[in-house]
Specification:
The chain is an alpha+beta fold. The protein has one domain: Porin, CATH 2.40.160. It is built from three helices and 15 strands. The strands form two sheets. The protein has an eight-stranded antiparallel beta barrel with strand order 1-4-5-8-9-11-12-15. It has a four-stranded antiparallel sheet with strand order 2-14-13-10, with helices on one face. Strand 6 and strand 7 form a beta hairpin. The protein is elongated and about 80 Å long. It starts with a helix and ends with a strand.
């Protein structure tokens, strides 16, 4: 056999080997399990519409209610950045359409408040969980190493262990009887890229935005004053968080 034929056969063999070893992932029927981390950055977080309601059947109670509403009208709040461990399952219905279910360990979210007297870090905190389900369009083809994607879906955020820092006098006056944050359903906008190392392993980097709001509720118990009974006063307001979530996770295709 001539040298030319040998070289041609070698080239064909190398080409076949490269095709057979190319990454072939994110195709119809594939399930990929990812683990990694998320960095959560609230965007323009604030509190608005704070107002206090409670008994005002005597001059003392009416004065307390007026004082509370005057105080909360000057209060601002923001949510600090946080990080979370996440795990997700990504299923491909077709070579380009998939859905990803993401769960995360509860995140400690800290709230900083402000009023005319100053700023109060860690004025309140809560554990937040944020499962989401996102439908995705995956670009390029299953044999490509790089596969960008865009997605839209739904998020459910709920809060546990909401506590107020009663070391701060202003916080103590408004929340000495408890605090709560409501759960909510929210849309999710998502984009990112997958890099396939081989047929099984891949790296997924993405960013999501969630227009997230919650109703904040603070309760305060006021003692009686002389002949006048006290009462329990409830302050409510809208807490806006609107976080960007940046994620990085490694996955294995089954």
């Amino acid at each position: 056999m001539s040298l030319k034929k040998n070289l041609a056969l070698a080239a064909v063999s190398l080409a076949a080997a490269s095709v057979s070893s190319a990454a072939f992932a994110q195709k119809a029927g594939d399930v990929t399990i990812y683990v990694g981390g998320a960095y959560i950055m609230p965007s323009g977080s604030n509190v608005s519409g704070l107002s206090t309601d409670g008994p005002a059947t005597n001059p003392y109670q009416a004065s307390v209610l007026s004082q509370y509403n005057s105080q909360v009208s000057k209060v601002g709040a923001s949510v600090d950045n946080s990080a979370a461990f996440i795990v997700s399952a990504f299923y491909m219905f077709t070579d380009h359409i998939g859905a990803e279910l993401t769960l995360g360990a509860p995140v400690l979210m800290k709230v900083t408040t402000t009023d005319p007297a100053g700023s109060y870090t860690n004025a309140a905190n809560a554990r937040a969980a944020f499962p989401s389900l996102v439908a995705k369009w995956v670009f390029n083809d299953p044999g490509d190493a790089w596969r960008p994607y865009l997605g839209v879906g739904v998020n459910y955020t709920y809060f546990n262990d909401v506590t107020a820092n009663l070391d701060y006098p202003n916080v103590r006056s408004l929340a000495n009887a408890g605090a709560a944050l409501s759960s909510s359903w929210n849309p999710v906008l998502n984009g990112g890229v997958i890099y396939n190392f081989n047929d099984n392993w891949s790296l997924n980097a993405g960013v999501s935005w969630v227009p997230l709001t919650s109703t904040a509720t603070f309760s305060s118990s006021v003692p009686s004053f002389g002949p006048f009974p006290g009462g329990t006063y409830t302050t409510t307001g809208k807490l806006t968080i609107n976080p960007f979530d940046v994620t990085l996770k490694i996955g294995y295709r089954f």
